[in-house]
Amino acid sequence: MKDFHYQPANVHRVSVDDDALLFHVPTTSLFALDEMDGAVLDFISGREEGISFDDLEARFPGEATTEAEARLENLLRLDVVNDGRPLKPERPPIEIENFPLTTIVLNVNTGCNLACSYCYKEDLAIPSKGQKMIFDTAKRSVELLLQENPDRDSYNIVFFGGEPLSNLPLIRQVVDWSEPHFAELGKEVNFSLTTNATLLTEDIIDWLDAHRFGLTVSMDGPKALHDLNRKTVGGKGTYDAVAKKARLLLSRYRSKPVGVRVTLTAGVTQIHEIWDHLKNDIGFAEVGFSPVTSGDMDAFNLNGDELAEVFAGMKALGERFLEEALEGGNIGYSNMHQLMQDLWEGRSKALPCGAGVGMLAVNHDGALNLCHRFVGSEMEQFGSVDTGIAREELASFIKARSDRTEKGCATCRIRNLCAGGCYHESYAHFSDPLKPAYHYCDLMRDWVDFGIGIYARLIREAPEYFHNHISPRRAFGK
Ligand code: SF4
Ligand code: SF4
Q: What pLDDT is stored for residue 477 in this prediction?
């Protein structure tokens, strides 16, 4: 009978230059391994049948025994080695009764003034045919937010569409009502929206600035790439109009840095070229990439080779990110920045995102959805602003999705960073949001391994990066 058994699902060993590291899967923490740690781990991991104290003593005789036992103790504490006691489940499925909402997403108009060829929205309509939310629905949505989680100091209202600026009168009404309302309650309210930029004017920009909106522009890169899919209703490319408005926005927006979100679809995989244009030619503070693999129209999804190209490009840009970060700079690369933040904070996620727990999205007619991407979809809804949250249904969805039993995620080394992936990806890919988004796990694991390497270099050579670029952003983003 052996006393100690290696738990491979809890450990991932990584080498960065000459340093050996242990990525502790349950807590997403990183530990440096010295020679003795490495030797003890090698020994235990090489023995499928486990080891006893006698085995350890035989392998590390004399003075080394005490040292090896101390290392074994550490590994036991981390659940990297088990001594026969039943392992406590790392994450029992989440039982939830209350929904600590911090964010409400308002779909202010299903209409959009553009007709991007890959758009995923099932309810998309041109602005004149769009269904607009009325103020009463928006107000009830905000009241629901406060009612569900009354004790917070700060809340977020996100305007979404279609193109949210195509219902600017409602956005103004919501802001004009919310600001004094939250102030009276002694609370803070933050606004944000994602826009295609085409409807921006100087007046609108200044108004958004005065209310400190967090802004993200949707733009896909230089003209040839952007115009492939981002088109007017008449089928013309929109690059010229979007680039002009984006420059106008960036020339006068002062309250917060403005980011850009790039949708990567079939044929759009040129990561460095896109980043360079959007960051250096247009001047966005941050560029974030969203690869599309599960859109409704298969022709727009990245195929396997393209997806591999995208991840290779993202890693190459990651090298550039590292170079700059080692010199104290920041190239404004959201995907890498987010990964650094997750690792730095030791985030260990039971769920991939806040959808359905800290955040709900409201249809134009008041129905409640997991998040903005489900608005207008066929997916079941979870109550409405009139009847309240369908608690049982939502709780059972969260419980089922957080239950990793018998899913590949249960032993995956990035399970507490990925947590099964985006519900909408699963819904779009498998017509089942409960199923983990399994379809590019290897690339995701490789991306996280790459990120761990970058993180380790920064911690060792430029730890100030985290204080200069992660902490301020946290404070800023609240
Ligand atoms: S979806 Fe894939 S990558 Fe994500 S945790 Fe599950 S197995 Fe791992
Ligand atoms: S479900 Fe997907 S799209 Fe929706 S908030 Fe979560 S990660 Fe984002």
A: 37
